[in-house]
Specification:
Distance between the termini: 59 Å
Helix content: 25-40%
Shape: elongated
Structural class: alpha/beta
Largest sheet: 8 strands, mixed
Number of strands: 17
Length: 609
Amino acid sequence: MTEPTHPPDKVRRGLLLRALLEVLRDAETPLPRKEVYARVRDRVSFTEREKSLNASGNPRGDLLLGFRLGGLGRVGLVARTTAGFSLTDAGREFLVKHPDANLDRVLGQLYRAKTKVLQPATRRAWLVRGSSVGGINVVPNWLEDGFVSLRAQRLPPTATAADWSEVVAAVDTAYASRGVAYRRRKATEYERFLRLMAVDDLVLTTAEGEVYLGRVTGEPYWAAAEDPLPARLRRPLEWLNETAPTPFAELPEPLPGRLAASGDIVDLSTDLAVVESLLDAGDEGETDDGESSDGEVAPKPSDLRLPEVTTELFLDRAWLERLVRLLWRRKQVILYGPPGTGKTFIAQKLARALTDSGNVRLVQFHPSYAYEDFFEGYRPVTRDGHVVFEVKAGPLRRLAEDAADAPATPFVLIVDEINRANLAKVFGELYFLLEYRDQSVQLLYGDETTEDFSLPANLFLIGTMNTADRSIALVDAAMRRRFGFVSLHPDDPHVRGVLPGWLAKHRPGDDMPVRLLAELNRRIVDPDFRIGPSYLMRPWVYDDPDGLAEVWETDLLPLLVEHHAGDGIDVRARYGLPALRKAVAPVAGAEGAEPPEPADAAVGEPTES
């Protein structure tokens, strides 16, 4: 079978690993660690990156070789004694069995087969930082000796999970000169490490652009006082991908943003399934482009698809599919246009066609709408007969939490009349997350103990904007950059066919409403005030002999009176139903003839939208 093509970094790791095994195979006696590194460098010239020094002053290539040595020992291919490292019989057999394969991939499969464990029902996932503890990268020590640690240099070594009050008191004493928020953050970190972290939990850490995954195997303990590492509070760990870490650049969403969160220990339990997927990355049969060897696409978050429910929208299916593709790529779109073009109706129908109706929420913006209404803010509640204020989640926060719990299911938030609110005031720091879904931010109402927040990739926003209410040009540049804007204008081809399609279904052969609407819009010079077809898509308009006149008198003319307020235009003479009927009436003796041009020269030609 042909060996699959690997990105250059994977090929390089495989080359170094083979050289490492061959050095140990050819050695007559066990080799000290530094001698192993030197002999590998004699066989394979280090790249400039591998020659460069990390924060601890060690060549990055040596660090990579150290990671591999520890992993080889865990799978029984390398033995370590006081004299140094040597290749075992299993290691020699391994080299003979795989003369041409990329050993980095093969060794990863072997390691996962030995270490993969079933998921406990109460398992959690954590990020613990170790690449710069007091300026020292302690991750190589973690990998070699099988543990993870917190610095905790000011805690008494007697503090354990059993005497939590002692930990809190020690934090308050040790950091008395620091603010309350800082002491609370420190206490929270220790609580997570001592009390909340448990056996079988998963731990992620990063070093040199690689991500390592381990499983907690025991209770916390304190290292001896003479231990040189600046992180004495420890938990034993079994590293699960030590020989084949995941490059940070290849992490699945939303982990890149979650790993950028602040703090020495971060709870990743909401993304447990994604963390566990790292165990399966690189399994045999799966190629690097996400396809399995039998041609099937590997599982990924659900794409948005358009079921066969588009007939009631009377819109071209190809146009709807383009809209869905735009929504999938951009995550948020705005449907904009004049009144009556069906913006809200289309948004709701589309959202419910793409996902279950229980995963769709609708909010309507207005001038007094604020961040506290939309995302989260303090609200009065009654506690023990007293009114107190608590932070309550708004519709976006609640839907985001639901989406995070079901990452393969689309969730849609519809924001009706999105341009009627002060958008900078409503979105606040969430502006950033609209553009960078793979990042996270500290929230306005968060504190030192609150995890940073990110918007799930499966949460989609559809906004609607009435251009007659407020010109689209007034939307700030930040919002325009973060949303895809989709026109729903009466002159657009996909909108022009809506009313004829509806009439063909409900009133076959009647094209008068289409002709009246076309003439009305021809007389309206400002494209933002032209009228959409939905006003004429109500059955009662045609069931009642006066229904069409009622729509004109109570819906359309009031809009146009407001539009022309103060400019001296006789709205009824220009846009009234009798005037339009006269203009579109066929010329006597010429069946099917085009209606004549209106006599009012002031009407003018419509401008481009």
